[in-house]
Design a protein that fits this description.
Strand content: under 5%
Radius of gyration: 22 Å
Distance between the termini: 73 Å
Largest sheet: 2 strands, antiparallel
Order of helices and strands: HHHHEEHHHEEHHHHHH
Helix content: 55-70%
Shape: elongated
Number of strands: 4
Length: 267
């Protein structure tokens, strides 16, 4: 076999950590269950034991499995997974489609956070931020006019994700902005799973427009309400309406009577 053929064979070999993560996200190995033995994984992937152990260590670092001496590798409960780790969030976007539990958890997080972030954006957005939000929105609209839902080299979904990412950036809070980058694959997962019928997309665009307008007009409370309305549409498309019926949002927490505005000036 020539050197070039050998190189091609090596490139074609699956990433073991990716393959195991895909199986875990798909529910083939549920929390509490053990992965196949190392020797079986070696045979399956046709690699050495050290290669398998390196892949398993990647999953350990991700919080997805724990190694138990003499027993093997056991899948950890979902709450132990490091979902904000860039590699795990990437797996989330690629492999979590069959996992309704993960989809619901990601969506519940968005419902809790995005109305509050939209409020911050309405208070702090600069002209550059508004341009980024409007550019993403216009990209979605232009993509809708094409049969393949693409415009200027990007898909409607990509513009949708960019719209939400621009709002996080417009909050001008370092933590929220960083979280948006980490959560980008997770947000993309839900965007891609939403129903793409014309009527629903048009309704969704109208809701996105109201968010954009509230931010542009510096209307924090309206921005929060509009952001929740966008998520209500997403919840309908994903069959997760119950999550938005009684949302425990950061926005409503900060509006509660026990957190008067004057307390922010204490201490």
């Amino acid at each position: 076999m020539s050197a070039s053929s050998t190189s091609t064979t090596r490139r074609a070999r699956p990433d073991i950590a990716d393959a195991l993560a895909e199986a875990i996200f798909a529910g083939e190995h549920a929390p509490g269950e053990f992965l196949p033995r190392e020797v079986d994984l070696c045979e399956r992937f046709e690699v050495s034991r050290s290669t398998v152990r390196s892949a398993l260590q990647v999953l350990v670092a991700a919080g997805m499995i724990t190694r138990i001496s003499g027993q093997g590798s056991r899948v950890q409960p979902l709450e132990g997974w490091h979902l904000l780790d860039p590699r795990v969030s990437g797996w989330l976007a690629r492999f979590a489609h069959p996992n309704p539990v993960i989809q619901r958890e990601v969506f519940a997080f968005r419902v809790a956070v995005e109305p509050f972030v939209a409020r911050l954006a309405a208070e702090h957005a600069t002209a550059a931020d508004l341009l980024a939000i409007e550019t993403a929105y216009e990209g979605m609209i232009e993509a809708l006019a094409n049969d393949d839902l693409r415009f200027d080299g990007k898909s409607h979904d990509e513009y949708d994700v960019a719209f939400h990412e621009a709002i996080f950036t417009a909050s001008h809070n370092l933590v929220w902005a960083q979280i948006s980058h980490v959560l980008k694959p997770a947000i993309a997962l839900l965007v891609e799973r939403s129903n793409h019928s014309a009527d629903r997309l048009n309704d969704s665009m109208d809701r996105h427009r109201r968010v954009m307008e509230a931010i542009r007009l510096r209307q924090p409370q309206e921005a929060a309400r509009a952001a929740l309305a966008v998520l209500e549409r997403t919840g309908q498309d994903l069959g997760l309406e119950g999550v938005t019926r009684s949302p425990a949002t950061i926005e409503t927490t900060f509006d509660a009577p026990e957190f008067p505005a004057t307390r922010q000036q204490e201490g």
